Structures are given as structure tokens and as C-alpha cells.
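Support case: xanthosine-5'-monophosphate complex. Customer-provided input:
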Amino acid sequence: MAATRNSHLDDTFYQPADSFFSANAKIGLTFDDITLATLFSEILPRDTHLDSRLADALQLNIPIVTADMDTVTESRMAIAMALNGGLGLIHYNMPEREQLSQVSRVKYHVQGLIQDPIKIAPDQLIGDVLALIEEKKFGFSTFPVVDDKGKLVGLLSGHVVKPRYATKKVSEALTPRMQVHTITKKELGKDPIARADKFFTEHLGIHKLLVVDDEDHLHGLITMSDVEKITLERKAQFKPARDAQFRLVCGAAVSATRNAFGELDRERILGHVGALLERGVDVVAVSTAHGHTKGVGDTVKVLRDAFPKLPIIAGNITSASGVEYLADCGADIIKVGQGPGSICTTRIVAGVGIPQMTALYVCSRAAAKKKVSILADGGITKSGDIVKALTLAQGVICGGMFAGCTEAPGEVIEIGGKLYKQYRGMGSLAAMKAGSAARYGHEKADATRKVAAEGIEALKEACGPVDRVLATLIGGIQSGMGYLGAKNLEALRSKARYIRVSPAGQREAAPHDVVELKTKN
Ligand code: XMP
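Agent response - structure generated as follows:
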């Protein structure tokens, strides 16, 4: 009964998207301006599904993408995101060649395979190895031994890395090559972890497996403890996002590059994206601040003609006509957001942009007609914002939420006993100088002359590994879905009902009138 009864009172106050946003057509609303009404639910948060198909050839297991920003997404972030079921978009503030190798690092990342293990030379002393362990604070003491050409010579076992043997040479103490267990890269096959797992079961007492090529050069190391950890993780609810060849998914941003005459540099764009595809990229993002432009549209068309099956993200826009234009040009996924980002100043500098929930509503209706997906890009500061965004969009793009993570580019900075990482807008002067000026319609050289920055340079508090941040966000999303009785994201989109929140209601939503205690974890 409770599931089907539809109270007239509820309908008056809590409205579905079409009637709610139409009734609020004269005002731009963002996340904190609205709240979602709960619904009868038989769905436990832990039973909800977060998979999202962004394009025919692009399926994610969680609907979260990290921004193509030079302080957010490079290969480490993209690997961490894909391992958790999401996607990282590698930024383009770097030489093309460097971006290609970043993509390769993601595509060839084998979870559990230490690609570049610490190696020891045969003529070193055990004492040198002990000093290295002490200096680098390694938590392990077994090392592959290779010659100066990278060929495997043997394995130095932790049993002999002891002060009493300090003056002995590694070559005297190592387990010789013939007795070391190895596997070739080819033999690892499509599922290296399953293969390694089988190996460890079959070889009692062996905890390390070395990976070599046909010439016996060392290419990696797999440990039994890593394999066991991963096997456990595989039973986790959210699986890594992988392509058909079992490689992690990876995205890359490209710019609508112009030649010396100011025309679109078709050859360069095609060369760049062609090379990205050779490296296995799964999706490219034509990323600019103003996507409803001839330059972005023409770039999408050129790419669509040349690469019919390639999933293309394009943006950013905040209008229905922007969605229609980019979809007609051939984009599959459209980025929605102009000025909501935590480091953005577009609305202040240029006086343009639309608060995110209104923009998402308008764009979602145009996207549904064109059968394309939209991504809510920018302004997300908490899991509740993601739940609200996902009532209209197929996924979200986050910058600031991940810029403090261990996997984000850049060093940790200590200020007043607290740890931070740099986070800067791609439209900040420093980022434009480093290459992103085209995204904001400027020449790179302009960045030193008269040009209006549309972003700031900032700091984010260091917040630990991506896994931890995502666990909190995903928990929040699942909780929101449970409150709405939505088993999956499609149900969330169709069931959501909204109401506006007064300023007092916004204050009520956060902890108030208490002194918060922070529990250390
Ligand atoms: P959050 O809020 O997640 O926003 O930190 C990330 C998104 O902000 C956009 N972006 C910018 N927008 N000026 C802008 O107006 C900038 O300098 C800038 N840099 C990034 C971008 O869409 C990103 O995903």
C-alpha cells in the first residue's frame, strides 16, 4: 500500500523535475538551493547499482570522472579512478608526447604488477642494500638482481639481507637465476592476477613471481600478498572500469588547436587523437570553457568523421541549444557547467554562467531528445551534491574533491602544521602559461600580456588516497538512492522530486548549535 499511495499533499510540495524547474524558470538554482524529497523505499543503500553507460562504447561502474586539470588528473589519478570503476581525463597542459605516455601508463597498468621494482646490482654489498632499506624506509627486503643491461641475474632473498652478512657481495648471496620463478609477459595473459594466483597455489611457499620478456629482461614483480588483496577486492561491489581487452579505461583531453592563420589545425588534431587511439584511449574530451562555438563544433565533426566509433566528450555548455549543437556535430557526452567550479571566476570576470542545477535540468531535457549523455562538471563539494546532480545527469566531473588526494599531481606542502596540495583553475594565469590558454580562447603568449584569468590558484587540504575519498562519496550516493527507493541511476533520475530551500533551511541542513568533535581515524 505504502509504495503506491500518492498523497496529493506530497505532489503539491515535492515536484518532479519538469514541473519543479518550469515553476522556477525565472531563477538559477544550484545544489544548495534545492533538496530531494524521500520516497517509500525497499532498497537498501548497499544494494544500489551505480553503473552508468556514458556512450555505446563507454561504461563506468561508478558515475564519477576526475577533471582534465593539471593539478588533478595524470596517470596515477586515472589509474586510481579506473580501479574504483570511474574514469580520469588526462589533461593537455603537457607536450603531446608526454600525454601519450601518460595514457599508455594507464592502459598498461597491471594491478598487482609492480612494473618498475627496486633492483639491485650483483656487485653491490649486502651492507649497501641494508643502507638503501634504511634510507628509503622500504617495508620489504627481497630484491630482484639485474645486470647492467636489465637482464635478470637472480633474486636477493630477505633471509640474507642481515647485518651479519653486510660485507658479502650480492652475487655471493643471491638465489641464482635458474632457481628463480619467472613468467613471461605473454604468459600472464588477459587476467594476470588470476594467472599469478594459480601460480602461487601451485608453488608452495613461493611468495614472489618475477615477470620477464623473451630476452630475460626484468619487467615486473608480482607478490602473493598483493594478489591476495586484489582477489579480495574483486569481490567488492564496484569493479574496476575496463575495456574489452581487460585494460583500465582512460580518457584524455584535447584542445581545438588553431594554426598560425587562426584556422582549426585539423591535421594536428587528427594526428594527436589518432596517436591517443593507438595507445588505447577510450574517450577524448574536447575541453573548452565555451563549447557552443564553431571551433569546438568543427573539432568534434572532424573527429567524428575520422573516428566513427570513438566516444567523444565535448563542452562546456549550459544551454539546450548548446547540447543540440554539439550532439549534431557528433559528441556522445556533453559537459555541463560554466562557472560553478571551486577555482572558477568566469561568472565574476565575464559575468556569464548558469547555476548548476538549472543548467543541468535544461541540458538534460535536450540531451534526452538527442540521445546523448551529460556530465555535471564543477561545483561539487559533497556527496549530496552528486546525488542531486545524478537526478539529471549520467555522471559528474570533480576537480577540487580529488585535488588533495595522494594520486593528484604535485607535492604535499606543509603550512602551519597542516598538509596541502596545490589546486589551480585551468583558466588561471599560471595554468594558461603552461598551455591551457586555448581552452579560454586566448593565445598562449597572451597569458603574459593583457588577458583576463578566469580561475585562481589555490590549495586543497591533503586528503589521502583516492580509495578513501571515493568510499565516502559512494557511501553518500548509495544512501541518497536508498532514501529515494532508487535501485539504479535510471530510477534515481525518474523518481527524484525537488523542493527549494530557504536560507534558514540551508543553515538547518548543516550541523548547527553544537561544537563538533572530530574523531581521528
Ligand atoms: P570543481 O568545483 O570540481 O570544478 O573544483 C572543476 C571544474 O571547473 C572547471 N574549471 C574552470 N572553470 N575557470 C573556470 O571558470 C578555470 O580556471 C577552471 N579550471 C577548471 C572545469 O570544468 C573543471 O572540471
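Residues 67, 69, 289, 316, 337, 339, 341-344, 346, 377-380, 397-401, 425-428, 454-455 surround xanthosine-5'-monophosphate (CB under 6 Å).

Case will auto-close in a few days if no follow-up is received.
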